[in-house]
């Protein structure tokens, strides 16, 4: 499908509107400036001029538009994108001269203006919406996927279509951005966007997240330089700007694919409604072996496993099936012996003799699935973080053949009283843990304690649905429905030593995160009901090697970012932006059905003419292997 930039056009003032009004010789900006700047101009003449402009360009009648003064204050040119991703795609002018307004309403989804209060509502209730020309009425939220073009005095966004606003002055453009961000803050947190309230929400240490222009960005530059210096000359294939996505091959799955589990050794696996399909790992991707391990629920009514975890040198797989459809919690696991293809036992989650549930499981470290003697793994529930042990308390592996339903031992962990709302977690190469929460917070725990986080990053208003971390723990990637958030965990302690937020408190010099987003057009094409999920770094399990790409899934899209490019503060995406830096430079792989998961194979499967190991993309019916190459 190409890169994001290939579907994004510069909007000039000589647009398709000329097809309808070829006789016009002066731009609307010149007309607007005449109305605004001609000296001397009596107020009555100015009003007359604005009214004439409104008639000339077919703006709404006086009964449905704002006053002339408001038009001049909030004047914009409104564009609509038509044609989608076809060769005929283009911007057309919807209104040559109109106005925008931010209003607070209790009738967010309705079309009536009865409950709208411009500026604020009388009782402080309601949500902020953006209104433009009677054609746009959108709740101010990240769902709008607002993108800024400071050099064009333009913003693009999604609201039942893809729209663009062009402003006539820099002051108007900057004021719109400020008002939008203030309304967004209030809609998310229910508080006015005052300095006091921002400190209340984020804390003094994280004010750089609210005012990125005042944040210390040196950590990003230092981390980038540090990563480059740490690499051996042969550890990374240089990333080329002209690299292409090349599909090596595609195979039919047996249908109903629920999850993709990649191995670093010989095999990878797809879990579907009937069992676990085994695939062979090769340098150009994964190939089906024709082997399926069937599920045997013993006459029970367990649902299809949604989570699979490789253990013990990738010879065993732990399968977690939710108790209720649509809910992630499970009260136990099935253990699959991959060599025999059989479920050898079912484990129960218990603490102090009481059955409990888990919503997620993961390995102790990034590479512990390769350890043949591995007998422990981590578990997560809404208010629990713990380690489970498959051995008896005296240290021997349980004889599962003689036990009807063995109980996993709660090895260590903490059960929090309330309020954590954990959603997802991941581990580093040394066993440090990152946890994402419903309130958007991301917590970093050291490998020695699960009771108290060393660092807790504030939420940006959206729940964290998936989290990943680099092998060295320097970078954390959180997934939300509408964007990914990339966090640098490096800081310098009082002794001048460089550490990560997993090993110590980061103090007050915490760099602002960066956001990875879709351009509004791609977000619209992905579909309103399709959300980002499963953001991952590429996969390394060796100290000194650096992850090179990031991948996430939304609808039928696999979206790939160049990690080095995202970290580069001088990258062109970050120019002329206000607020948190957002990167829109990515490549899209389009499939013909919704994607279940996209993951890069282990780094050892990267070949000499590719900057990365193959990308494996699973849909409900197929699995594909894709190479990144500079060759076509």
Features:
632 residues, eight-stranded antiparallel β-sheet, mainly beta, nine-stranded mixed β-sheet, 9 helices
Describe this structure in a few short sentences.
By secondary structure, the chain is mainly beta.
What does this structure look like?
- With 632 residues, the protein is mainly beta.
- The protein is 14% helix and 35% strand.
- The strands form eight sheets. Strands 15, 16, 17, 18, 19, 20, 21, 22 and 23 form a nine-stranded mixed beta sheet that branches. Strands 2, 3, 4, 5, 6, 7, 8 and 9 form an eight-stranded antiparallel beta sheet that branches.
- Helix 1 packs antiparallel against helix 2.
- The protein is globular.
